[in-house]
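Two folds, back to back.
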Amino acid sequence: MTRKIAAALAALALSGSARAGVLTYSGYLQDAAGQPVAAATTITFRFYPGAAGGTAVWEDAVTVVPGADGWFSAVLGAAAGNPLDAADFGQPLWLGLQVSTDAQEMSP
């Protein structure tokens, strides 16, 4: 079953400061039929230096547990040894998301 995150409803917000190496990402997870997903799901987040992708400058797989309505929140950079400080937020970065075992990252 393919899952997707409703990009129009997703929000990326700073939690603390980028220098602290932590960001909070919130979104809505739904299945291919448009129904909310409430089961624990692993999402791989990647930051890229360009819109066309290339090599990710930061990556982490985070397990989220959406509510019954599909809404979830993930803290990026909180994993030990993988802070966001490794990415240069002094330049534009693009976020890629890959849900569970989907073969590819989502595209707009």
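---
second:
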Amino acid sequence: APIYRLAGTDFGEIEAEIERREQVPLQVPVTSIYSRRDGIVHWEACIDRSSDCVEHIEVNASHLGMGVNPAVLGIIADKLSPA
């Protein structure tokens, strides 16, 4: 964060934009795949508490490891397969 502040990033503005966006619940089905081991994105940032159409699935993977994690790939394949 200090480097971004030096570059002129306004975190208050970003937070206000996030709050504005959260006022409108998602209208389409969403699957949120997250990991408490991510190390880059905090897992709680992946939880949508305002939309009923969000499915949250926790996996055991690092941030970069998600792209090659068999469990993650299986979830994606399942979600993209025709019903």
